[in-house]
Amino acid sequence: MAVTLGRRLSAAVVSAVVIGLAVPGRGEILRISEPRPVVDSAPGLKAVLDPAVVRQGGYAVLTVTGTGGRMKGTADALGLEISLYPAPGGLRALVPVPLTTKRGRHRIQVIVGNLEARVFMTVARRPVRPMRHIRGLIVSPEKAEALRTDKGKLGRILSRESAEALWSAVLRRPVPGPVTAEFGVPRSYGGGAGWVHKGVDVPMPRNWPVIAPTGGTVRLAKLMGSYGNIIVVDHGQGVFTTYLHLRSMLVEPGVRVEAGQVIGTVGATGMATGPHLHFGVFMHRVAVDPVEFLTRGLP
Ligand SMILES: [Zn+2]
To answer: In b/e form, how buried is each residue of 215-246, taking b as 16+ CB within 10 angstroms?
Structure first.
């Protein structure tokens, strides 16, 4: 928009100069022979989304070029205000699609300094799965309270983003087993209230090593009421991974981890019916499908 306005103004200035100015009362035209050059200094901001069609619970890579060397910007996408971070050739952001986003076309507004650009995303429906009843795990009022407390604490950690991307394009699976509880499935506990599953569950023998899928910084390694022993790894630029119900935690907050490094072992701490890894992925505080994350990787 800034670019268009700039061009319009330039055109107006040039025409005024070329046509000349009438001097009232004398009927003469005063001509200025040399039109002053008006340089449009605002470069053309361009935003590209890959892919342009994303499923609920998925994510896209937003690449912004023509930023004129600016190092910061924001994207207003799906009700989220997302920070843009430096990337080769311009700025970049991972745009997560919350499970609750309505299907259809959504406009993404990009703002870099006084420049604006827009791009459109089509959100496709994620197949609806039937409610899964978890027996043998009754959520008492105390447990429900512990869940709320843990969620609040995790939310605060996820909101502190770091600018440097510590990831590599190809990601490793934290544990090798198959996923038995998918992402985005609604659940009920002991026939009572439930939540949507915001990660995947992979049953593994107790004490099985859990590895970091890619580089990052440990932000949390703590025993919590419902999550049990939880590790949160910050991979930079708003991307975090979480590991719940661990038996042991082998890293401390603040330490850097590399891809493939053992960070803990599988357990059944907190609200769990048996030994398994609950693996979660968050982008700008929004939970995305860990299977898609591990398969597609990062830019
Ligand atoms: Zn789980």
So the answer is: bbbbbbbeebbbbbbbbbbbbbbbbbbbbbbb
State which residues of the chain have pLDDT below 50.
1-42
User: 42-67: per-residue pLDDT in tens?
Assistant: 458 999 999 999 999 999 999 999 99
For residue range 248-282, list pLDDT tens digits in order. Answer: 999 999 999 999 999 999 999 999 999 999 999 99
CATH 2.60.40.1590 domain position(s) in the chain = 46-124
pTM of structure: 0.84
CATH of 46-124, one of 2.130.10.10, 3.40.50.170, 2.60.40.1590, 2.30.29.30: 2.60.40.1590
Distance 254 CA to ligand 1 centre (A): 25
Q: Measured in angstroms, how far is the CA atom of residue 294 from the centroid of ligand 1?
A: 16
Residues less than 5 Å from ion ligand 1, measured at CB? 201, 278
Cα of 5 vs centre of ligand 1, distance in Å, is 51
Which residue intervals of the chain bear CATH 2.70.70.10? Answer: 132-296
CATH superfamily of domain region 132-296: Glucose Permease (Domain IIA) (2.70.70.10)
